[in-house]
Write a sequence for this structure.
């Protein structure tokens, strides 16, 4: 039975675990391996790891770090950051990663999406769109940690990426990153209408009810969160956490009519 996925999202910068606010001010939180071990114990639905320093610094994926993460991880793992070639992606898959996330390269070399889908299957190819509101309405897509504008309609891009062979779309809201005030449901609605692919949403979650409201409106969807699963309390003390089995069940029974 298909169900909504509650996904933990981790950011890596210079091999350390960090958390940003509106894609700025990365706060160092510790060793990412420790977070993975705790998420193993919490039986997380899925883990997404994004290296936010790779593309910006002109570096490829840190294969040793990815290997360590994959060896430790006991849940489906998605990795993104610095991938520009089919050969790099294939090596990462060989290390035990289930999904590859593409961002900047999807705009500069969209053929890579099709090539990867042909090689490994569309279900393993994820496209991440980092978006924020434009001053006079609508949304724009950014790369390089929110520094470079693409200047294109994200919803048209989503449809185009589906045609190229992508298997999943992640819509990441820069404006809401780290704010913990809830998802931008209007943004999600527009993205949902643009594609029939599995859709994951990231940016803004402050509590489990925010996830519940997303699931209530959109049903089977990926509800991803960063701050919610690495912070605790108003002062944002560092604490790796995730809802237990009963909490997830109660949440889905309340908002998704899960029997």
């Amino acid at each position: 039975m298909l169900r909504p996925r509650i996904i933990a999202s981790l950011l890596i910068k210079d091999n350390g675990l960090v958390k940003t606010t509106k894609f700025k001010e990365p706060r160092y939180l510790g060793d990412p391996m420790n977070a993975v071990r705790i998420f193993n114990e919490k039986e997380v639905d899925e883990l997404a790891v994004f290296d936010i320093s790779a593309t910006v610094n002109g570096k490829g994926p840190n294969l040793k770090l990815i290997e360590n993460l994959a060896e430790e991880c006991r849940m489906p793992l998605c990795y993104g950051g610095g991938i520009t070639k089919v050969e790099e992606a294939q090596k990462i898959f060989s290390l035990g990663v289930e999904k590859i996330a593409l961002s900047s390269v999807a705009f500069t070399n969209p053929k890579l999406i099709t090539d990867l889908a042909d090689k490994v299957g569309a279900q393993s190819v994820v496209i991440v769109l980092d978006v924020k509101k434009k001053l006079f309405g609508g949304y724009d897509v950014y790369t390089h940690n929110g520094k470079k504008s693409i200047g294109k309609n994200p919803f048209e891009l989503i449809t185009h990426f589906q045609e190229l062979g992508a298997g999943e779309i992640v819509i990441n809201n820069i404006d809401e990153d780290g704010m913990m005030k809830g998802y931008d449901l209007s943004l999600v609605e527009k993205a949902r209408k643009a594609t029939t692919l599995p859709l994951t949403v990231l940016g803004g979650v402050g509590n489990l009810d925010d996830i519940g409201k997303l699931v209530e409106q959109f049903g089977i969807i990926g509800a991803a969160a960063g701050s919610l699963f690495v912070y605790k309390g108003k002062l944002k003390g560092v604490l790796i956490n995730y809802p237990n089995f009963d909490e997830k069940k109660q949440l889905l029974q309340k908002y998704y009519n899960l029997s």
The chain has one domain: 5-256. The radius of gyration is 17 Å. The domain at 5-256 is CATH 3.20.20.70 (TIM Barrel).
